[in-house]
Amino acid sequence: MPELPEVQALADFLRSRATGLAVVGVELGSFTVLKTFNPPPDALIGAPVDGVSRFGKFIDIDCGGTHFIFHLARAGWLRWSDALPSTVIRPGKSPIAVRVRLDDGSGFDLTEAGTKKRLAAYVVGDPSQVPGIASLGPDPLADDFSEADFAAILGARRAQIKGVLRDQGIIAGIGNAYSDEILHVAKMSPFAIAASLDEDAVSRLYAAMRSTLAAAVATASGKPAAELKDAKRAGMRVHGRTAEVCPECGDVVREVSFADSSLQYCATCQTGGKPLADRRTSKFLK
């Protein structure tokens, strides 16, 4: 799933390629991808791309005051083309969910792999009309998001820190991968209870969150969409590296599996050398 660093890079990429061009076509390859009906997609046609922004994991393309917003969900991606094919996509016949054409012949497809179709697109007059944007927590890289703000958020929640970091209504933009990375840098168990963290732990976690995300944004910056997935994988310290060597201490990277996801961590760095049990017990294995 693309998270804050990759979504920021995609937004920057689209801004550099599409700003100043006009939308000349919007084709839907999926009947379910569009979550709004008024205004219709045709309202975008003829409108100039005035800017591209990011809200959490959402990308907002401002087309003359009408906003085309999308969320790539778990299996979605953006595929840019300097010269889109002239053939019109047929609903249900390809992994392409949406195609947006620009007046110089370029444009992009939003694609989604797998059978669970969660990619979502919206055409709205204001980004706040998208429920997922309206309910977002603060951006962890915002200049005005202080350590004190972060401490207040954690202090109010008696929940595992891994889940708190991933909750978009609490902090926007962090998902499964970067929460693993942040907790590894902070040397903190993913099962630690947010409200129980002392001042030193909160400070360490805040610094790890900001530095990890900022470094990932810098790495992704300037890369075309086609290279972002590989760059993300290559930069991971523990996420997706089960049974590999921890780059910090040399111990093996371990995994806790859930119904539809998993987390990775280093026991030596994060849990005092004790392997974690599964989420049903949220305790250490004896």
Descriptive overview:
Belongs to the FPG family. This is Fpg/Nei family DNA glycosylase. It catalyses: Hydrolysis of DNA containing ring-opened 7-methylguanine residues, releasing 2,6-diamino-4-hydroxy-5-(N-methyl)formamidopyrimidine. Keywords: DNA damage, DNA repair, DNA-binding, Glycosidase, Hydrolase, Lyase, Metal-binding, Multifunctional enzyme, Zinc, Zinc-finger. Its cofactor is Zn(2+). This protein has 286 residues and is α+β, with helices and mostly antiparallel strands. The chain has two domains: 131 residues, N-terminal domain of MutM-like DNA repair proteins (Alpha-Beta Barrel), CATH 3.20.190; 124 residues, Orthogonal Bundle (Helicase, Ruva Protein, domain 3), CATH 1.10.8.50. The chain is 28% helix and 21% strand. It is built from eight helices and ten strands. The strands form three sheets. Strands 1-6-7-5 form a four-stranded antiparallel beta sheet, with no helix packed on it. A four-stranded antiparallel beta sheet has the order 2-3-4-8, with helices on one face. β9 and β10 form a beta hairpin. α1 runs parallel beside α6, α1 runs antiparallel to α7 and α3 crosses α6. The two termini are 33 Å apart. The relative contact order is 0.14. The C terminus is likely disordered.
